[in-house]
Amino acid sequence: MNDTQSLYEKVRSEIKFNIINGKYPMGKRLKAKDLAEELYVSRTPINKALSSLYDEGLLNYNRNVGYSVRIITVDDIEEIFKIRTALDVLSFREASLNMRENDFLYMRRLLDKADLASKNGEINEIRAAAKLFNEAIYDFADMPRLTMIIANLNDYLEVLRKLSFDGRSENSRRKLSIEEHSKILDLMEAKDFNSLEEFIIKHLEGSKKYIIGESYKYKDFVLNEKEEDINEE
């Protein structure tokens, strides 16, 4: 990899990280000039990175206003959760068939870590533990093609995970989510697949409703994505 490619990858990773973690909120215009000044680089790697992130679906482009962070709509959330529900029912079942006692102990330690982080108000640690939990399940499922499908959804899942765990309302799902994941592990260990499927569906339906509710609190969030509704800064 040459220096130009290395710089481009660093710039692209930084912009993508800032999108997923909310530094650049939904609907925000991303101007090459401003980003170049912020990241201390020329506009060339910035423009290349923005084009790449547009191709990934993380950005919108309008010739009148340029690039902006893609707004995740209610329809997007509904679609993502339909896909995730189908994938999780399959992956959690397959994982339970492959997991041994030590594997379940490892997963419970992840939940303990998330619970401690929740009590301490360490939101980033909660999100990290939740991500590790799901990634471990997909690894235990040992289905490479399933992992590839999940990887394609991962950026959107990270944005939704942020909405879920960074919830601004007093009725945050953090504690409930940890309790529900513990119940899921119980059902996996018991190999109670019918109850496991029912509970995963219930858990994800609750998550979906909560995330939709939280998403309305972002001023740039709209029901239907329309380029003309994105306000210029």
Automatic annotation (TrEMBL):
<keyword id="KW-0238">DNA-binding</keyword>
<dbReference type="InterPro" id="IPR000524">
    <property type="entry name" value="Tscrpt_reg_HTH_GntR"/>
</dbReference>
<dbReference type="Pfam" id="PF07729">
    <property type="entry name" value="FCD"/>
</dbReference>
<feature type="domain" description="HTH gntR-type">
    <location>
        <begin position="5"/>
        <end position="72"/>
    </location>
</feature>
<dbReference type="GO" id="GO:0003700">
    <property type="term" value="F:DNA-binding transcription factor activity"/>
</dbReference>
<dbReference type="GO" id="GO:0003677">
    <property type="term" value="F:DNA binding"/>
</dbReference>
<dbReference type="InterPro" id="IPR036388">
    <property type="entry name" value="WH-like_DNA-bd_sf"/>
</dbReference>
<protein>
    <submittedName>
        <fullName>GntR family transcriptional regulator</fullName>
    </submittedName>
</protein>
<dbReference type="InterPro" id="IPR008920">
    <property type="entry name" value="TF_FadR/GntR_C"/>
</dbReference>
<dbReference type="Pfam" id="PF00392">
    <property type="entry name" value="GntR"/>
</dbReference>
<keyword id="KW-0804">Transcription</keyword>
<dbReference type="InterPro" id="IPR036390">
    <property type="entry name" value="WH_DNA-bd_sf"/>
</dbReference>
<keyword id="KW-0805">Transcription regulation</keyword>
<dbReference type="InterPro" id="IPR011711">
    <property type="entry name" value="GntR_C"/>
</dbReference>
